[in-house]
């Protein structure tokens, strides 16, 4: 066993639980698997998987916290993430990941990622698309002295 973390996909067969696939984290201590959400990002009817690793760290480019996106290849997830979203250094981006429904009404499911250590805390909204996930967050919300304000980073 190492400390890279893993996510196991388990199916129920009769009365037994069988491990169907294991996705492994890439960095020791990244807390890969701290948050796991299944959501159909590209609207093909197959749930895709988001896995948070809030203590992932990268120096070049500087990043802290990651969310790994695994697209569903029908019955199995690709063993390598199709995309890795990262947050600001020390932000614990990916501590919380939640399906948010279709926020921008484009027919694709969207999701929210929490970065609790970024300033006073921050939630970023990422949108699903035919290809999987938008490259940049579409919306970032910060908390500031009890009020919430929204900043559009990318206008759709
Ligand atoms: Ca899908
Ligand atoms: Ca959407």
TrEMBL record:
Q: Which residues form a coiled coil?
A: none
* SMART domains (alphabetical): Int_alpha
Q: Which UniProt keywords apply?
A: Cell adhesion, Glycoprotein, Integrin, Receptor, Repeat, Signal
> For this UniProt entry, what is the primary localization, expressed as one broad class?
membrane
Signal sequence residues? none
Task: State whether keyword Lipid biosynthesis applies.
Answer: no
Q: Which Gene3D superfamilies match?
A: Integrin alpha, N-terminal
UniProt FG-GAP repeat ranges: 17-79, 80-142
Please report the record's description of how this protein sits within the membrane: Single-pass type I membrane protein
UniProt entry tagged with the keyword Methyltransferase = no
Q: InterPro entries per the record? A: FG-GAP (IPR013517), Int_alpha_beta-p (IPR013519), Integrin_alpha (IPR000413), Integrin_alpha_N (IPR028994)
Q: Which Pfam families match?
A: FG-GAP
Its subcellular locations are:
Membrane
Family per record: Belongs to the integrin alpha chain family.
**Which named protein is this?**
Integrin alpha-3
Q: Which organism is it from?
A: Ataeniobius toweri
What lineage, starting at the top, does this entry show?
Answer: Eukaryota, Metazoa, Chordata, Craniata, Vertebrata
């Amino acid at each position: 066993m190492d400390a890279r973390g893993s996510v196991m996909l388990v199916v129920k067969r009769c009365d037994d639980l069988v491990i169907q696939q294991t996705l492994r984290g890439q960095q020791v201590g990244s807390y890969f698997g701290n948050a796991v959400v299944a959501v159909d990002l590209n609207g093909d009817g197959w749930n895709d998987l988001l896995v948070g690793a809030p203590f992932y760290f990268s120096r070049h480019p500087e990043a802290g916290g990651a969310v790994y996106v695994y697209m569903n290849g029908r019955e199995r997830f690709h063993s390598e993430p199709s995309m890795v979203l990262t947050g600001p250094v020390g932000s614990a981006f990916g501590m919380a990941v939640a399906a948010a429904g279709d926020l921008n009404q484009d027919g694709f499911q969207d999701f929210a990622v929490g970065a609790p250590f970024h300033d006073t805390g921050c939630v970023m909204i990422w949108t699903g698309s035919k290809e999987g996930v938008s490259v940049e967050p579409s919306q970032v919300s910060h908390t500031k002295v009890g009020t919430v304000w929204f900043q559009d980073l990318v206008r759709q």
